[in-house]
Each structure stands twice: as structure tokens, then as C-alpha cells.
Design goal:
This protein has about 475 residues and is of the alpha/beta class. The chain is about 40% helix and about 20% strand. The strands form 6 sheets. A 7-stranded mixed beta sheet has the order 14-15-16-13-12-18-19, with helices on both faces. A 6-stranded mixed beta sheet has the order 9-8-7-10-11-21, sandwiched between helices. Strands 5-6-22 form a 3-stranded antiparallel beta sheet. Helix 4 packs parallel to helix 5, helix 5 packs across helix 15 and helix 13 runs parallel beside helix 14. The termini are far apart.
Length: about 475
């Protein structure tokens, strides 16, 4: 059996240098807590200061880098991840507990995210604006251009330790910025491995630091006025408190939700069942756009729910390194215990368990509930667990109203073959994205992605992140009269 002392800690990436610190950070293996996934270090306050100072200094270089150089750096990172795909996917499975098939998909997505960043670096455009719309402005023209915003503070979450971090690093470099990234403490080794690729990419010295750090030092980064933008992905409670402390810097928040899906009477049930099983239970439901609330038309309620429950029971729960595994462990024992409490509370309030419902160590089986009161936390809060709550409806507009009856608004799914219902959902659902004939968990890495209400602020997706990470400037040309 491996012990922590037998694991050589991975150094941290400080402004182009590999360093250690006195603060050892063990990294657990959720599937087997007795055998750690590895270890690294938390940055010291002095190392943090060095990283921020280096980011400020390097910005004087990166802001002047031509597009072809920025694009070349990002393509080299993309190709470097592709070349180490199997290694990185296995590391994600070990330290995040993500099934190896899903870890490989995440790695492939990161390859694309960096390639898309290279393409966006090459097409950051401005426009010309005729200003002579009145006699007073005769002979004047406007030219706009986007300029990099400056050093960026990035904080990424545990559930997609590679690709959600890539959605901060890639657009930052594409726009000509520098970045200090705080990877998740639960699974930092993935991005530290990617830092090895960044180190060989030609990125200017000091332009990237990847530093695990304590929450206290992370709080210091949030409030640090030397950063011009904060980009955070994580829980709503933490994100909105960060915004309060962020000062004058721009803030992008990609937060959570209790995503709803509507299964209309005209839906293709086989497809809806198949996709809802994926949307609800992938990565043990630890996805911010995971299906949590299902609203099913009463005409298809029995047929849909029967197939869905059978499908949930058939999913394989087990070792994330087994290619046959559908659900691995939850990230830690605290997450399992919270999920169990919420399920038990719902049952005590009248909910019925159709599948799952009882934890087994760090594993929680696919769980399906009906009859839960809307005030139960499994309905009103973000579960972030492999559980769904189903409700019947009779009128489509009522289903839309129920999806909207939430403090969150990230994405929603609508399975329907009635075009008027699709348009109605698009008009009336108060969310960042309406996914027709698929689940809210669908995301393409180049589309605008983000939420409203408590689910966030701003949009990711390479083009839209680049817009947030740049400042628009206009030059007015006047012909002397």
C-alpha cells in the first residue's frame, strides 16, 4: 500500500520556475482514500507576491505580442495535451474520481479549448464607425480596437480540473494577458502537469503561474487590485462573496444551479431517457448543469419514468479506472454525507425513492425521487450529486413556470417536437441557455456559456471570454475643416 511519504510531491509553477514550499498539500484518491493520488505544495505568501509581480512585469511583453505568436503558443499547448492524453486522463481519474472514459473526453475537450483560443487570438477584430451622423461631426471617423485588460486572477473548480481551468488560461493568453491560476486543492496535479506543457510552449516568462494555495491566500488574490479581472468557477455562495471583495476589477462568475429539464408529451422518449441518464449521473452528478429537476408531461409520465428508473439501476458504479464504469465515487466523504442528509430529509417530508438513495462509502448510487416538496433542499438548492427529482405536469407553460421557480438560471433542457413549445421555452425560460431536445448538461466549448440570477455573471466560451478579457478603445480621426 502506498503511503504519503512514498509519493514525490509535484513542484508548483511560479512564473516559469518550478519551486516547492514548506506547506505540503496531500492529494487524495476519492476511490481509495488509503492510497493517495499524489502530493504538491501550497504557495507561500512570498511566492504569491512573486507571481503577481511577475505577471505585472510580463504583461508589458504579452500585451505587445503579435497574434501569430499568441496563437502559436496556444497551439503548442493544445498539441502537448494531445500527446499526453492518456497520462492526463488517468491523472484526472485518480485525483478527481472521474470515470476514465469521461476523463478522456475532458482531456480531448481541453485540446480543443486551447486550439480554439489560438483561433480567437487570430481574429480579435475592431470596426470603423462613421461619426458624421450630424453636421457637427463632419469629417470624423471612429476606429475601435480591443486591448488586453491586464493581469488576471483565475480560480478553477475540482469537477473539471483540466477543461474549466483551460477556459481561463486559453482566452487569457489569446487576448495578450497574464494569469495567476489557483487550481482546486482537491485535484491540483492535473493543471500542474499541464504547466509542464506551458513551460515548453514559448509563453513569456512570468505570464503564467499555476499555484495551489490556501483559502486565505486565495481570498487575498480576490481582493488584490493588481489584478484587472477575476474569473471564478465554483459554488454560488462563494462566488457572490468574492464579487463583494473584488473591488474595481471586472468579475466573471460561472456558478451552479439546480438545472431543470422538461419532457413534453411529443418528446422522443427513448432519446430523452438516454440523454437524461447522461445529464443526471455523469461524474456522479457533480456538474453545475447536471439534470436535477425533471418535469415530465403526465401523458408520458409512466412510460418515461419506468424506462428512466430501469436505466438508472443499470448504470455501473465502481472503480473510475475501469473503462466500463459509469459512476465513480463522489469527491469526498463530506459530499456523500451531505447528499445522504438531503435525501433523508426529502424522504421524511414525503418523497418516494424509486432508485438508489443509500450511500456506500464514497459512492452514492444513481438516485431518483418523486413527491419531494419544493422546499426540500434536493429541489431548491444545488445538489451536485447523482440524484434527480421528478414532477408531473399537464400544461407546458406550467412546466416552464416551475423551471423558472428557482433562484438559479444556468441552462435548461426541453425535449419536444412541437416547434411552438421550443420557441415559447426560448422566450420564457430565465436561463443562460435553452437546450432543445437535449439536456442542460450539454456544452460546446466555443458557445457562449453562463447563467443569470444566482448562477453567475458574464459568459465563457472562447470568443466571449476574450471580449471580457479585453478593453474596447476607440480612436477618432478628424479631418481639419
Amino acid at each position: 500500500m502506498a503511503t504519503l511519504t512514498a509519493v514525490k510531491p509535484h513542484p508548483i509553477f511560479l512564473a516559469g520556475r518550478w519551486v516547492d514550499s514548506p506547506d505540503l498539500l496531500p492529494v487524495d484518491n476519492p476511490a481509495n482514500p488509503a492510497e493517495p493520488a499524489g502530493a504538491t505544495y501550497n504557495a507561500t505568501p512570498e511566492q504569491y507576491e512573486e507571481a503577481v509581480t511577475a505577471a505585472q512585469r510580463a504583461f508589458e511583453v504579452t500585451r505587445k505580442l503579435p497574434a501569430y505568436e499568441r496563437a502559436a503558443i496556444l497551439r503548442r499547448i493544445s498539441e502537448g495535451i494531445r500527446a499526453r492524453r492518456d497520462e492526463i486522463a488517468r491523472l484526472i481519474a485518480l485525483e478527481a474520481g472521474k470515470p476514465i472514459r469521461d476523463a478522456a473526453v475532458e482531456t480531448d475537450r481541453a485540446v480543443l479549448t486551447f486550439r480554439l483560443g489560438a483561433e480567437e487570438a487570430e481574429r480579435i477584430v475592431g470596426e470603423t464607425i462613421p461619426l458624421d451622423i450630424s453636421a457637427a461631426h463632419t469629417g470624423r471617423y471612429g476606429i475601435t480596437r480591443r486591448f488586453p485588460i491586464g493581469p488576471i486572477a483565475g480560480i478553477s473548480p475540482f469537477n473539471f480540473p483540466l477543461n474549466l481551468a483551460a477556459h481561463k488560461l486559453s482566452p487569457a493568453l489569446a487576448a495578450g494577458n497574464t494569469i495567476v491560476l489557483k487550481p482546486p486543492s482537491r485535484d491540483p496535479l492535473t493543471m500542474l502537469t499541464v504547466a509542464e506543457i506551458v513551460a515548453e510552449s514559448g509563453a513569456p516568462e512570468g505570464s503564467v503561474s499555476i499555484l495551489p494555495m490556501t483559502r486565505e491566500l486565495g481570498d487575498r488574490m480576490v481582493a488584490d487590485d493588481r489584478f484587472k479581472l477575476l474569473t471564478f468557477t465554483g459554488s454560488p455562495a462563494v462566488g457572490w462573496r468574492m464579487k463583494e471583495r473584488a473591488g474595481k476589477k471586472k468579475v466573471i462568475l460561472e456558478l451552479g444551479g439546480n438545472a431543470g429539464v422538461i419532457v413534453d408529451r411529443s418528446a422522443d422518449l427513448d432519446w430523452a431517457v438516454k440523454r437524461c441518464l447522461v445529464g443526471a449521473f455523469s461524474y456522479a452528478g457533480q456538474v453545475c448543469i447536471s439534470v436535477q429537476r425533471m418535469f415530465v408531461h403526465e401523458a408520458v409520465w409512466d412510460a418515461f419514468l419506468s424506462r428512466f428508473v430501469d436505466g438508472a439501476r443499470a448504470l455501473k458504479v465502481g472503480d473510475p479506472l475501469d473503462p466500463a464504469t459509469d459512476l465513480g465515487p463522489m469527491v469526498d466523504a463530506d459530499a456523500v454525507q451531505r447528499t445522504q442528509r438531503w435525501v433523508d430529509e426529502a424522504v421524511a417530508a414525503g418523497a418516494k425513492v424509486l432508485a438508489g438513495g443509500r450511500a456506500d462509502g464514497n459512492y452514492f448510487p444513481p438516485t431518483v425521487l418523486t413527491g419531494a416538496p419544493l422546499t426540500a433542499r434536493v429541489c431548491s438548492n444545488e445538489a451536485f450529486a447523482p440524484l434527480v427529482v421528478a414532477f408531473p405536469f399537464g400544461d407546458f407553460s406550467d412546466a416552464v413556470r416551475q423551471v423558472n421557480d428557482s433562484s438559479f438560471g444556468l441552462q435548461a433542457g426541453v425535449f419536444t417536437n412541437e416547434i411552438e413549445h421550443a420557441w415559447y421555452a426560448f422566450e420564457e425560460l430565465v436561463v443562460g441557455g435553452v437546450i432543445v431536445n437535449d439536456v442542460p448538461a450539454y456544452r460546446a466549448d466555443h458557445m457562449p456559456y453562463g447563467g443569470v440570477k444566482d448562477s453567475g455573471l458574464g459568459r465563457e466560451g472562447l470568443r466571449w471570454a476574450v471580449e471580457d478579457m479585453t478593453e474596447l478603445r476607440i480612436m477618432v480621426l478628424a479631418h481639419p475643416q
